[in-house]
Amino acid sequence: MAAKKRAAAKPARGRKPARPAAPKKVTPKRRIASPKPARSGKKRINLALQGGGAHGAFAWGVIDRLLEDERLEIDGIVGTSAGAMNAAVTAYGLALGGPEMARAKLQEFWGKISDAAKNSPLQPSMFDKMMKPGSLDTSPGWMMMDALSRVMSPYQLNPMNLNPLRDVLHSVVDCETLHKQSKAKLFICASNVLTGKIKVFNEGNVSIDAVLASACLPFMFQAVEVDGEFYWDGGYMGNPPIYPLIYHCDSNDVLIVQLNPIRIPEVPKTSQAILDRINTLSFNSSLMREMRAINFVTKLIESGFTDGGRLKPMLIHTVDAEEEVCSLGVSSKLNAQWDFLSGLYEMGRAKASDFLDKHFDDIGRRSSTNIEEKFL
Questions:
Q1: CB 367 within 8 A of CB 315
Q2: Intervals of the chain under pLDDT 50
Q3: pLDDT, tens only, 169-181
Q4: CA-CA distance, 200 to 101, in Å (whole number)?
Q5: How many CA atoms lie within 13 A of 57 on its CB side?
Q6: pTM above threshold 0.85
Q7: Which of 79, 116, 154, 260 is a plausible cystine mate for 49, CB 3.0–4.6 Å?
Q8: Distance in angstroms (rounded) separating the CA atoms of residues 21 and 192
Q9: How many other CB atoms sit within 10 Å of the CB of residue 262?
Q10: Where are the beta strands (DSSP E) in 218-258?
């Protein structure tokens, strides 16, 4: 019976996901202390998920397609902001019932995100829908929030510190289950407000507050307190950080699901376009620095220096939608309408299918992304 319920929740291949019905809570039947080695014929891969608000639905589509592929097994997942939410939901679903349950949980999560946003003032205007689908640039709610956030802090605008994401996460993810069992290593990144240091939570100490801390945009939400420390969005310090996958995972392959475009086609000239570019530059900067370090170590290894075997070669792969995302402004990251989210989901599935068609054989053998060309 449980198997039939999981199968029913599985999104139809290649079709827009149906409106999700909340599945009944599944009680784990057995305890797993650590990830099992890959079964014969399966390749193991790590996922690195960038943050990007509603654009995280693109990563949902990528993850969904990878989970559907029976040739792959996820070793570890690191995520920041929206990537942290995708990572936590995926790891929880894998712990409960494997890839099919992870797919169902991701669909449930994004469906509830859309439902929670129905009463939000952040709705696209008719002009947005006609001229720039996905954007909220002419939404009265967006313009008011954007203006107020420049002169008032969330401590004044939201003194009760309400965050609809908290209820959604609580309804989808049970962190206690992740503490007791896991099938994929989990890493969630946040930025310590007072020390400026990066904080990485793992499956052993992750909490709903930790995930919210990773997605805490300081102009929208009050800093999130976790164990006496205060955190903002992890994208300021690592979007996402790669080093947890290097130090703690067995697989050398890292697939970066990139939501923030590195290259843009023209110089920004309007105030909004300039702010959009500042946003993408800020949230890509830590990844660019880490890619430079990985490229440097790779060249050392290729030259024969391994520091006594302590240097680990990393194989880098990427899935992105740079051309498509370039046309969407920062405001679209707050658009949680179902049509927009499901469109990003379909785009993510298509991009992941293209990656698997072209580069599946590269996994475990070589990088499919030229680091110097893409990041340096």
A1: yes
A2: 1-13, 21-37, 40
A3: 999 999 999 999 8
A4: 25
A5: 30
A6: yes
A7: 79
A8: 37
A9: 15
A10: 224-226, 229-233, 253-258
